[in-house]
Amino acid sequence: MKGSEFDELEFFRALARARVRYVLIGRRALIVLGLPVMTVDYDLWIEMDDSPLLNAAAAPFELFPNRTPEEARQTGRYVLENDERVDVLVSRQQTTVDGQKLDFTGVHGRRAEIPLAEDVTVSLPSLDDLIATKRFASRPKDAEDVRALEALKRSRLE
């Protein structure tokens, strides 16, 4: 596998230029919020119809989809990859392990635009929505992340 021409700031600029409706979820979102966690990939939840826009924006970074947009709609997810990896969730709605339903439109509508640089922002879910996305699976690291996010939320209220 050949190395990609990946630059995080340019990647998020490209998403903005392409008007991809997304939120960054997973541990990269926690990193943007300043929490001390590690990860090797990006996790995006996008509007179901924006797969072609995302794929076109990712192409200059040599990130290639492992499924067609049609296949991604059927499975609800796909991956953009080379030496970087972007896991992409493309469902209109997700359910947490405790039965809470989250719809993309609502999560996207409550998003925050967080500056990464003077002219670059990244779309993050609200803290409550980010906590809920960490409950899509029941992995031990997700439980740790939920605790860290709840502590961050409490600190912001004090």
Notes on the structure:
It is a single chain. The protein has 7 helices and 9 strands. It has 158 residues and is of the alpha+beta class. It has a single domain, classed as Beta Polymerase, domain 2. The strands form 3 sheets. The protein has a 5-stranded mixed β-sheet with strand order 1-2-5-4-3. Strands 6-7 form a two-stranded antiparallel sheet. Strand 4 (77-81) and strand 5 form a beta hairpin. It is globular. The termini are far apart.
Strand-helix topology:
Blueprint: H1 8-18, E1 22-25, H2 27-32, E2 42-46, H3 51-58, E3 64-65, H4 69-75, E4 77-81, E5 85-89, E6 93-95, E7 101-103, H5 104-109, E8 112-117, E9 120-124, H6 127-133, H7 140-157
Parallel strand pairs: 2-5
Antiparallel strand pairs: 1-2, 3-4, 4-5, 6-7, 8-9
**Major sheet strand order:** 1-2-5-4-3
- Give the tally of structural domains: 1
Q: Helical residue percent?
A: 25-40%
- The computed structural class is alpha+beta
Q: What's the gyration radius in Å?
A: 15 Å
The number of helical elements comes to 7
Give the class-level CATH name. Answer: Alpha Beta
Q: Which outline best applies?
A: globular
In whole angstroms, the N-to-C terminal distance is: 48 Å
Find the count of extended strands (DSSP E, 2+ residues). 9
User: Describe the biggest sheet?
Assistant: 5 strands, mixed
Catalogue the unreliable spans.
Answer: none
Q: Strand percentage, roughly?
A: 15-25%
